[in-house]
Every structure is written in C-alpha cells, then in structure tokens.
Amino acid sequence: MKRIVLLLPFLLSMGEPVKEGKLKFVVEDKEGIRHNLSSLVCDGRTYIRVKEGNLEYSIDFSSLDKVEVLTQRDKDLKLKLYLKNGGSKEYIVSPNTYCKGKSQMGQASFYLRDVKFIFISTEEK
Q1: What is the DSSP secondary-structure string of 23-37?
Q2: Distances from the Cα of 3 to the Cα of 6, 11, 16, 35, 49, angstroms
Q3: Fewest Cβ atoms nearer than 10 Å: which of 15, 51, 100, 113?
Q4: Which residues pair with 120 in a beta bridge?
Q5: Where are the domains of the chain?
Q6: Which residues of 79-109 are buried (b: 16+ CB within 10 A; e: fewer)?
Q7: Over the stretch 105-122, which tens digit does the pLDDT of each residue have?
Q8: What is the C-alpha separation between 58 and 46, in angstroms, rounded?
C-alpha cells in the first residue's frame, strides 16, 4: 500500500498536458513598422479561419511560423501561411478580419489587410 501512495503523484503527473510557452507576435505593417505583441486574437479567436475552395479551416496560431499577406481582390485577401513543420500554403480570408493584441504601450488592433507579415515565435518558460 505504501508503494502505491508513493507512486500516486508520479502516476497522476503522467496525465498532465505539456505546457507550451507563450506565443510572441511581431506584426509588420504596410509601412514596414514592426510591432511586438502578445495574446493575439483575430475576430475573437486564437486561431485564424481561412478558406480553400469550398472548405473552411481553423488554423491555430501555435502551429504557424509566419503569416504573409499577399494580395487583396474584392472580398478576398490572399494569405500565405508558413507552418512550423516547414510547409506553406496559400489561403483566402476576409480582408475585414480584425485582430487585437497586447503590447507594452497597451492594446493594439488592426485589420489583416493593413499588414505585410505576422511572425510567430514561442517564448520558452
């Protein structure tokens, strides 16, 4: 019985999820100015909703390395998403996608159509 009690904390800790570091974002606007942000949300979500053909995808920021805004045509904004695993793909989003994040100065907000790049990295704890 003592062995089970001694092993209990170890066994319980095996089921805990691995904690990821905080995400850091560097947003480069169309003027080339870089803004350091944290806690980025777009349209109130911690992921970005994109469209490819007739399907929609929800891609979590933690799986991305970089977002590049390519072109805008009417109601479509073309993005190139670079994945942490090395792949990349172009998708369509609304140019009215509204994002907010925290900076040292306060809350920053922008539309995706007004930026060139979003660089994403993980802050190690």
Answers
A1: EEEEEEETTS-EEEE
A2: 5, 12, 21, 54, 50
A3: 15
A4: 25
A5: 18-123
A6: bebbeeeeeeeebbbbbebebebeeeeeebe
A7: 999 999 999 999 999 999
A8: 10
Residue with tokens 């904004």: 77
pTM of the predicted protein model: 0.80
Distance, CA of 34 to CA of 25 (rounded, Å):
10
User: How far apart are the C-alpha atoms of 106 and 61, rounded to whole Å?
Assistant: 21
What count of Cα atoms within 13 Å lies in the side-chain half-sphere of residue 91? 20
Task: Tell me what the mean pLDDT of segment 66-75 comes to.
Answer: 94
Write out the two tokens for 119: 């660089």
Contact in structure between 82 and 68 (CB atoms under 8 Å): yes
